[in-house]
Design brief:
The complex is a heterodimer of chains A (387) and B (566). With 387 residues, chain A is mostly helical. Chain A has one domain. Helices cover 70% and strands 4% of the residues of chain A. Chain A has 14 helices and 3 strands. Chain A has a 3-stranded antiparallel sheet with strand order 1-2-3, covered by helices on one side. In chain A, strand 1 and strand 2 form a beta hairpin. Chain A starts with a helix and ends with a helix. The model of chain A has no long low-confidence stretch (mean pLDDT 86). Chain B is α+β, with helices and mostly antiparallel strands and 566 residues long. Chain B is built from 20 helices and 23 strands. The C terminus of chain B is likely disordered. Classes of the chains: A mainly alpha (387), B alpha+beta (566). The interface between A and B is large, with 46 and 35 residues.
């Protein structure tokens, strides 16, 4: 029972810090919030509740047998697909800002796209560890890409371009990791170019891209979010304006408790504050990779690597959006942003990583695999099959 | 499991974290200044309001200019809800016509004044009307509790408390240094989230060299004299001859700085420094001291003035009364024009000009009040044939009363030209001294010996037989000089027969001067001579001022002791 205590510690640190920043962001009743009849502790209380559930999920994932996770990979993928489809069912699906991304889940809502990322990682880890998976086979490459494409279609229908991007990145990076021929990735990229072009030429997306390229051109319109994020970060300076003293959160910085919470941290706690946050996430990534490297089993290795990537990719995209390095895309910052779906999924990921770090199951599953490989080899020898 | 790919991937991810770090360095450290300025601009809208100007005190700490806390009514047009009844009520409460009030309420914007500087009870009544969209901001109104006392020193401010005259203007930066501002915190839509007035912002206080008691004395005596002689105006300056500290400084007519616009520019003129005039006989200090300093005369050098006139460059200079043969001392004492012209000619152009410059004529005294003029004295190469005579007796030059007083102070203090000033200290609102003007700048004009000799002559002026005898004060010796100057009539370009300026300048007690005092009476009617018109004013003021300052009287020392008999 020796799990990675440092990983747990850093995770709790990030979650606790997130709760603090959410309180800072939402405790001030801005005119926007006042209209919703929201009180000082409304968001904070809800977040604490979400956190408690999150810890339950994390513990559950930690206790789960890795073999069970492997077995459940495909059913979980189908389950998340069903949830994703439910978004379109009236009465269950919830729409906001012209997008159907959520399903009703008393007392709140859930965003299935977050679960899709987790299921995809587990699925890919299982798929890539299968004996039939071959890195030089186009068929082996096409299959997961098709699975991914099915999800993409639904995402685009919602529409949820952010999930399209992160799922694509996650899938390709994992396939890349498995050692798939780079040629295949290149082919797909060439084939996808017209589609990507068409998607980007969508007027509102184009506007976002333009705003990203030069946010100061229209600081009151399309560049508003980015400019406000810059102002928040920039006015923080080295040490920040002080915890709770952000002025940007007073309705200047949109989504200061969700997608742009990083900018709020920058404003209130300064360069030192954001540096600490970046370091903690980097630490989490390195810990995850070292857990992966310690595993003796392909599935466990891919699973640990994939989950670390999932968390880090979301983190990096969020950082990059807040600092204007990539076009604005609504993605929460893992563990810190307000919102249950992201927190549940990322805490489940940490739970699985801690689970792997124990090593016991790891060994067991490796033994089983070894046995399987031995049997197959024996069979091959017996029946004279060569590959 | 492809180890190489894993290493590449890890490198890329870690590099990405590093890229974020670099980008943040750029945004948060390198662009910190620019972005926080932008943040400040969008968060805070600063509206200048009335500065709590510093308080002005006299030299004994008596308040000369203070602030009254009043309230100003404004409206926020966007949230304003008012009907006809409300307007009517408001109009009744603040005493303005409904149309006037309506015209001050714009359709758009977030801020407009409706009525400035209301008393607190009126403000309270308006509050009780409970009209949405109206608000109050505290404003300070400058108040001069002493009314027109020292008005030309203090100056005044406008409706927005902007400095317009006097000390208020000259020391404006100090008086409003910390400034006063309203801060509005705005959200993205420009709505005002909160506002706060920096009430604590106060300017620095100023301590004058003026003594309120002496100022009052000078002003009231000057006013009496003006009525008596039906003069057009009068000025008086009292200065400590050793330090240049102005103790009293008055011009009549004066005005009430609380209502400065009620009078015309004539009343507001600070003529003691902004008007120059031909000084006449009191300018004989130049030829007198120059002759002594250059040792071309002694006290007993004789001048034959028996002809009653002398021709200089084709023009004849006359004496008012025919004198006989006068000694140098008598020339000054009796203010003989003929004798003075003779001395001037003996000195020559260059030396007369040199001494006029040494005494600071033709240059500003640099007093710390706005609007001072330098007067003029032409350089010798521009002098005509008659100039040497005219300048010797105080014509063809223009001086201000303050310049004249400074010249005579040099006689009082042993030959030094002091720098006149009216402010002794600038203090922080908490009371600590910020700037002190107590260090005294002085330049030597003439030798102490000459100053002492000339002082002895000036003493005789106020004695029996001198022109300024009526300036003598019982118990203290006065040293001074009378002056009666002709005024050039602008219509004819010649000296007017009716318009004169009578003056007396002197100091007392002569051997240990406590004050130098200059009296100028413009255009007196009936009498014109300085000895008759101005000298008695000097006497009155000096007499009372010496008592006020507890200066012992020489001939009656007992006066200053209380004898207790058993």
């Amino acid at each position: 029972m020796k799990y990675d205590k440092w990983m747990l510690f850093v995770t709790i640190l990030l979650i606790g810090f997130g709760a603090l920043m959410i309180y800072s962001s939402t405790s001030v009743i801005t005119p926007v919030l006042a209209k919703k009849n929201v009180t000082e502790f409304y968001y904070f209380k809800r977040h604490i509740f979400t956190m408690l559930i999150g810890f339950g999920i994390m513990f559950f994932a930690y206790r789960l047998k890795l073999s069970t996770i492997k077995k459940m990979a495909v059913p979980l993928l189908i389950f998340s697909f069903v949830l994703l489809i439910l978004v379109f069912v009236p009465g269950i699906g919830v729409s906001a800002n012209n997008a159907r991304r959520w399903i009703r889940l008393w007392p709140s809502t859930f965003q299935p796209s977050e679960l899709v990322k987790l299921s995809m990682v587990i699925f890919l880890a299982k798929y890539m560890s299968m004996l039939g998976y071959r890195t030089d086979s186009l068929v082996s490459f096409i299959k997961p890409v098709l699975v991914m494409a099915v999800f993409q279609v639904v995402f685009l229908k919602q529409p949820d371009f952010g999930s399209v991007i992160s799922l694509t990145l996650l899938t390709f990076i994992m396939l890349f990791l498995s050692g798939i021929r780079l040629r295949y990735l290149a082919y797909l990229l060439v084939l996808a170019l017209p589609v990507i072009y068409k998607l980007i030429m969508e007027p509102y997306r184009l506007k976002r891209v333009m705003a990203f390229l030069d946010p100061w051109k229209d600081p009151q319109g399309s560049g508003f979010q980015l400019v406000q994020s810059f102002i928040a970060l920039g006015s923080g300076g080295l040490t920040g304006v002080g915890l709770g003293k952000s002025r940007q959160k007073l309705a200047f910085l949109p989504e200061s408790h969700t997608d742009f919470i990083f900018s709020l941290i920058g404003e209130e706690l300064g360069f030192i504050g954001v540096l600490v946050v970046i370091t903690l996430f980097l630490f989490l990534f390195i810990k995850g990779i070292s857990i992966a490297n310690r595993s003796r089993d392909r599935f466990v290795y891919y699973l640990a690597f994939g989950l670390s990537l999932m968390i880090s990719l979301q983190t990096l995209i969020n950082f990059a959006v807040a600092t204007g390095m990539v076009p604005t895309k609504g993605l929460p910052l893992p563990f810190i942003s307000y919102g249950g779906s992201s927190l549940f999924v990322n805490m489940a990921a940490i739970g699985i990583l801690l689970n792997i770090s124990r090593g016991e199951e790891n060994r067991k599953i490796a033994d089983i695999n070894q046995e399987l490989i031995v049997r197959r080899k024996a069979r091959r020898i017996i029946y004279g099959i060569r590959n | 499991m492809n180890k190489k790919r894993a290493i590449i991937l890890n490198t890329v991810i870690i590099f990405s974290f590093f890229a974020v770090f670099l980008r943040l360095t750029d945004l948060m450290i390198l662009n910190h200044k620019r972005l926080s300025e932008r943040a400040r601009v969008q968060h805070i809208k600063v509206e200048d309001i009335q500065v709590r100007r510093g308080i002005i005190f006299d030299r004994r700490g008596r308040e000369m200019a203070v602030n009254l806390e009043l309230e100003s009514l404004y409206c926020d047009p966007e949230s304003l809800i008012i009907d006809d009844v409300g307007i009517k009520k408001l109009s009744m409460t603040i005493g303005r016509k409904a149309e006037v009030i309506l015209s001050k309420m714009p359709q758009e914007g977030r801020f407009a004044w409706i009525e400035r500087k209301l008393d607190s009870d009126v403000a309270g009544k308006v509050r009780r009307l409970d009209i949405k969209g109206l608000g109050f901001l505290p404003e300070a109104k400058r108040f001069y509790p002493k009314g027109q006392l020292a008005s030309h020193i203090l100056g005044f401010v406008g409706v927005d408390n902007q400095a317009l005259e006097g000390i208020e203007l000259e020391y404006d930066e100090y008086l409003k240094t910390t400034g006063g501002k309203i801060l509005f915190f705005r959200d993205a839509s420009g709505k005002v989230l909160s506002s706060g007035v920096d009430i604590e912002a106060k300017g620095n206080n100023i301590v004058l060299t003026i003594d309120e008691g002496l100022q009052y004395l000078v002003e009231s005596e000057l006013e009496k004299a003006m009525l008596k002689w039906r003069a057009s105006a009068a000025s008086a300056i009292m200065m400590d001859p050793f330090t240049g500290e102005i103790l009293a400084f008055a011009n009549i007519p004066a005005y009430d700085p609380n209502n400065p616009m009620r009078v015309s520019g004539f009343e507001r003129r600070n003529r003691a420094i902004t008007d120059c005039y031909e000084p006449g006989s009191i300018f004989k200090i130049i030829v007198g001291t120059a002759a002594l300093e250059e040792k071309i005369v002694d006290l007993n050098t004789k001048f034959d003035c028996s002809r009653g006139g002398i021709e200089v460059g084709g023009k004849v200079i006359h004496d008012a009364h025919r004198h006989g043969v006068l000694t140098f001392k008598e020339v000054i004492q009796k203010s003989s024009n003929v004798g003075s012209a003779m001395i001037g000619m003996k000195l020559g152009k260059e030396r007369v000009y040199k001494y006029a410059k040494l005494f600071g004529f033709g240059e500003k005294t640099e007093i710390d009040l706005p609007g001072e003029v330098s007067g003029w004295i032409h350089p010798p190469e521009k002098w005509s044939g008659t100039s040497i005579g005219a300048i010797s007796i105080g014509q063809e030059v223009a001086v201000t009363p303050l310049q004249m007083l400074r010249a005579y102070s040099a006689i009082a203090n042993g030959g030094f030209l002091v720098k006149p000033h009216v402010v002794s200290e600038i203090r922080l609102p908490e009371g600590q001294v910020l700037v002190s003007f107590r260090g005294h700048e002085k330049k030597r004009a003439i030798s102490t010996e000459t100053a002492e000799t000339f002082k002895d002559i000036l003493k005789t002026v106020a004695e029996e037989g001198g022109t300024g005898h009526s300036a003598s004060v019982k118990g203290n010796q006065v040293a001074g000089k009378t002056g009666t100057a002709q005024v050039i009539d602008p219509k004819t370009g010649r000296y007017s027969k009716e318009k004169y300026v009578s003056s007396f300048v002197g100091f007392v007690p002569a051997d240990n001067p406590k004050m130098a005092l200059m009296i100028v009476i413009y255009e007196p009617k009936g009498q014109i001579y300085g000895g008759v018109v101005a000298a008695p004013v000097f006497k009155e003021i000096a007499n009372q001022a010496l008592s006020y300052l507890n200066v012992p009287r020489e001939d009656n020392p007992n006066k200053n002791f209380i004898l207790v008999s058993r």
